[in-house]
Amino acid sequence: MAVNYTYSLLDEVKEILVKIKSAQKKKIFGNCYEQNDYIFTKEDGSTYYPTYPSHELWKCLRRNGLSHIRWHDLRHTTASLLIIIVVETAECRFKRNIFRNFQAHSLKDTHDCNNVGL
């Protein structure tokens, strides 16, 4: 049984997908071009078989001597890497703010010392 999912899109993403759809080669294939509402299609407009992405990933992994992995596994890996990046970015921002505050206080202290005549 097929399941259809609906996702909300940001306006920017929608614009990009509409550009992709409009750039498809309808003129080259003429009457043979298959009209549909799908964005990601073959050049002639026909749809991919549902297992196509998984099959292509499997072929790519095998061709490059890599172990088997599913798209779902990549999703978890990507999420983990993004969390690390966000945490590191937040840490860097936090450290940078501490350093700026330290610099500001150091400059203030130096200015105060100069006024005292030390």
Top keywords for this entry?
118 residues, 4 helices
Kindly summarize this structure in a few lines.
This protein is mostly helical. It is built from 4 helices and no strands. The protein has helices at 11-23, 26-29, 52-63, 71-116.
Number of strands: 0
What's the story with the biggest beta sheet? none
Please give the share of residues in helix.
55-70%
Note the gap between the termini. Answer: 83 Å
* Assembly level: single chain
How much beta, percentage-wise?
Answer: under 5%
Summarize the helix and strand pattern as letters: HHHH
Please, what is the average pLDDT?
75
Please tell me about this protein's structure.
It is a single chain. The chain has a domain at 70-118. It has helices spanning 11-23, 26-29, 52-63, 71-116. By secondary structure, it is mainly α. The chain is extended. The chain starts with 10 loop residues before the first helix and ends with a helix. 0% of the residues are buried.
Please render the helix and strand layout as text.
Elements: H1 11-23, H2 26-29, H3 52-63, H4 71-116
